[in-house]
Amino acid sequence: MTKIYVLDTNVLLQDPYSIFSFEDNEVVIPAVVLEEVDSKKRNMDEIGRNARQVSRLIDGLRQNGKLHEKIPLENGGALRIELNHRSFHQLQDIFVEKTNDNRILAVAKNLSLEEETKLEGRRVILVSKDTLVRVKADAIGLYSEDFLSDRVVENDHIYTGVLEQFVDITLLNTFYEKKEIPASEFPNMTLYPNQFLIMKDTLGSSSSAIGMVDQTGKIIRKLVFDHDHIWGIRSRNVHQTMAIELLLRKDISLVTLIGKAGTGKTLLALASGLMQTEDYGDYKKLLVARPIVPVGKDIGFLPGEKQEKLRPWMQPIYDNLEYLFNVKKPGELDAILAGMGSIEVEALTYIRGRSIPDQFIIIDEAQNLTKHEVKTILTRVGERSKIVLMGDPEQIDHPYLDAYNNGLTYVVEKFKNETISGHVKLFKGERSGLAQLAADLL
């Protein structure tokens, strides 16, 4: 039996094409949702773009019939703008205020009560990404669901870029001797290009080795880079060693790094970028950017020129640069950067329309990017450039993103089969004992 899905505003603002995600069921959009979408369409951000896209989609569907009478969709379902079930009578004793959320709940509840009077009444389900709206729906006896079709992965099994396997000591000895082994030695494992493999002795000895699947997926080779340090930074754990391998490989154009706060993502990327830009001359410029998404309440407009406005947002980048340059005095870093001229710290706000060739590009806090924004960034990358996307999917400040549908996770999953990309998840925090404990406990 088909169902009726009532959509909350946040579902449409997250994915304008969500109306086509419910197969042959009926999709109902309350009139109040259209009002909320209309109030967002002038926003000059991703939400505003999606609001405008929703408006265009629904306007285009008007050609198929009258929206308030139900029109067919290409996937076999139907769409209807609900005007007749907005009465607040059923909920007025429960929710006193007629907020937009409560009006959407009223539409769903009235539809549900109507279906219950029919012989073969359909189930009415409210779809919302707002947790409290789903809680309210449950409280008044409504079925409710989160919108999950925008998720890249269905659970927490996000690709880590690393596998561990116990092997016979003779295979380890062969790997040490020949510096490679065929991937056919692991017939029951799914291996991706540029994936890392930690091999440990089955008998429990201390013998182990790190291999990397080549771009054909047929051979596991020894790591190319085994540096003692990069720009004064030494690897402190095996996953940092893997990250350095990806960051220094010229045949890998896209690197994604995921890890908790303090695992060294930004520091390793900056050190690698500085070494390849300043020491090796592989790239003409080091470009560092991050999205402008506040944690908590926004502090509002900032005074000064562009660089002065950006300084508070970019301060985490400058903190790492001060450490790498061993800055001792205030203002010394600005003088160093001005003298070098090859390091650019920028906000992602200004990246649209650019073409960026011959540069080492670092995008920090990429978990706060939407799928559309991360596509915009990657399509800016020019010839002979390398881009590094990094962040922690568990620390998201964007209102409509989570660990499973953000732009960083999207890139990790979509590019894991590609030969020009590499990924590794960093697990161990190296900032300090306190920082690691806080990341684990809090």
Could you explain how this protein is built, in words?
- The protein has 442 residues and is of the alpha/beta class.
- The protein folds into 3 domains: 4-145, 3-Layer(aba) Sandwich (Rossmann fold); 152-222, Archaeosine Trna-guanine Transglycosylase, Chain: A, domain 4 (Roll), CATH 2.30.130; 234-441, Rossmann fold, CATH 3.40.50.
- The protein contains 13 helices and 17 strands.
- The chain has helices at 9-14, 31-40, 46-61, 100-116, 131-139, 169-178, 238-248, 265-279, 306-324, 332-340, 371-378, 407-414, 433-441; strands at residues 4-7, 26-30, 71-72, 78-82, 124-127, 143-145, 162-167, 180-182, 196-201, 208-213, 219-222, 254-259, 285-290, 343-347, 359-363, 386-391, 421-426.
- Strands 3-4-2-1-5-6 form a 6-stranded mixed β-sheet.
- Helix 2 (31-40) crosses helix 3 and helix 11 (371-378) packs across helix 12 (407-414).
- The chain is globular, with a radius of gyration of 26 Å.
- The model is unreliable at 294-299 (pLDDT under 50).
Q: How would you summarize the topology of this molecule?
A:
Elements: E1 4-7, H1 9-14, E2 26-30, H2 31-40, H3 46-61, E3 71-72, E4 78-82, H4 100-116, E5 124-127, H5 131-139, E6 143-145, E7 162-167, H6 169-178, E8 180-182, E9 196-201, E10 208-213, E11 219-222, H7 238-248, E12 254-259, H8 265-279, E13 285-290, H9 306-324, H10 332-340, E14 343-347, E15 359-363, H11 371-378, E16 386-391, H12 407-414, E17 421-426, H13 433-441
Parallel strand pairs: 1-2, 1-5, 2-4, 5-6, 7-9, 12-16, 12-17, 13-14, 13-15, 15-16
Antiparallel strand pairs: 3-4, 8-11, 9-10, 10-11
GO molecular function, one term: ATP binding
Pfam families: PhoH, PIN_4
Protein name: PhoH family protein
